[in-house]
Known about the structure:
Layout: E1 11-18, E2 21-30, E3 37-41, E4 46-49, E5 54-60, E6 73-75, E7 84-91, E8 97-99, E9 104-106, H1 111-117, H2 121-124, E10 126-135, H3 142-157, E11 162-166, H4 172-182, E12 183-184, E13 189-192, H5 205-216, E14 223-228, E15 235-240, E16 244-246, E17 255-257, E18 264-267, E19 277-280, E20 293-294, E21 302-306, H6 314-321, E22 326-331, H7 342-350, E23 355-359, H8 372-380, E24 383-384, H9 390-403, H10 407-415
Parallel strand pairs: 7-10, 7-11, 11-13, 13-14, 21-22, 22-23, 23-24
Antiparallel strand pairs: 1-2, 1-5, 2-3, 3-4, 6-10, 8-9, 12-20, 14-15, 15-18, 16-17, 18-19
Amino acid sequence: MQKLGFxxxxxxxIKKETDSGVVVYEGIVMPTAxxxxxxxxxxxxxxxxxPENAEIEVISRAEVLKEGTTxxxxxxxxxxGLPILSILSTGGTIASKVDYRTGAVSPQFSTEDILEAxxxxxxxxxxxxxxxxxxxxxxxRAEYWRKLAAxxxxxxxxxxxxxxxxxxxxxxxxxxxxLSFMLQTPxxxxxxxxxxxxxxxxxxxxxxAICAAKVACSDLAEVVVVMHGNTSDDFSFIHRGTxxxxxxxxxxxxxxxxxxxxxxxVYYDASSVEEIRLEFFSDYKKRGENELELRDRxxxxxxxxxxxxxxxxxxxxxxxxQGYKGIVLEGTGLGHVSAEWIPSVASAIKRGIPVVATSQCxxxxxxxxxxxxxxxxxxxxxxxxxxxxxxxxLVKLMxxxxxxxxxxxxxxxxxxxxxxxxxxxxxxxxxxxS
Length: 434
């Protein structure tokens, strides 16, 4: 390609003589191992064109992809009277674009890039931003949750009236749960992502981000996830951070509230951000209702074990031997495991390792009082996970063990509704600083 005067990522126009006349193509140059020129058309499709008998014009050169951090910098349009929102970027598809050197989608958008791509955000609020991480969400871990929670805390202390966290969708539910337990917030904390990168015609990034910004300016004061509510660009749902799950690998409406209704709905209007409106379905904590508090101690050595027919209890014994401090079992319907697992469960609990029962069914509540196996588990000392999602129960157990190692207190906190994770019971939990 260099011999032809262009490179990957450049925008070119090709006039090609064919048997039926001259055809004109325009698009972005993609990497290719063949002699053909591969370009991405504005429609999103890629085509290959033989360079013979082709007239090629370079329209624009590729820009170098930027990485870096914006420390408290005001970005975008500034209008009087707008609230201050902080965008904390962690990476993921919403903060990604195609790297034309490799053809891969990489998390390389800075916060400035997001504002440049979605200028409507500047009409909603005064935006300041910071890149906390630039990773794909499968690389998220507990130590990163703690740093992210601290960044959210500091932004609120420094005057942010709402927080937007851009995040990869694959593990966004885990991070939303972690922030829900770690932060008592007086303002909205909104996690948002996208299923399709910003350079694709079917991208959901812009709508999701705009809806998230509207929620971040609302009177809600909880950790929530805002994502597409259907496959069209009609509305987004507002999901409570401890009740949301990604339920589809690629659909734009992949996120659903489980064992709860969404907190609300954002009706999108592409013609004007002023016309976008919010509707709330259920109770939620209001702006200013709680004082800002950070409770970010976590016990990382906890695990989530999925039971299946014929599973060897040696799996459980392995984690015990490796020094794990807490275990969540994703059991069958009502939270059961086979009878041969019960001695290992009892052994773990006798060693001071709390074991929490959840269900593979996702919907419904754990109840270990119906069948013999369940009653045996209760006798062994298992903690029922109520209607918590398995991943939420895991994150909560990590957080609880960061607050206390007393088994009775662990049991009490796992049964308390700290952040809306247990439907129907909302209580305020006080944590001892000792």
